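fyi for ur records
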Amino acid sequence: MHVRVVYFEGCPNHEPAVELVREIADSLGAAIKVEEVLVTSHEDAVRERMLGSPTIQVNGVDVEPSARTRTDYAMSCRVYSGGDGLPRREIIAAALGAEAASCGEGAGDSRGRCS
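which gave:
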């Protein structure tokens, strides 16, 4: 399973997001590869589908269900539902669990999306 943490330089929630994803994956017994994607311009943010920093994607899909249809990509801090700069643990766990069930280990294209 491919997890991408998309962020900009100096984001205070970048490292905590990576640590949180790894911790939750370990607790679920999910094998993951974490890719940290540094964004340096608005064009990068659009290309990487960054809805603010950090954006966490599992196999190319945003972990926050309510954000999956958004297109307001930006070089800004992300605020997740609940008003925090990190998604709630259960949102990440649900995304990791759903993708493990539907995609399978090692599946997906170069951007981590299920085939």
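Residues 2-102 form a domain with the Glutaredoxin fold (CATH 3.40.30.10). thats all i got for now
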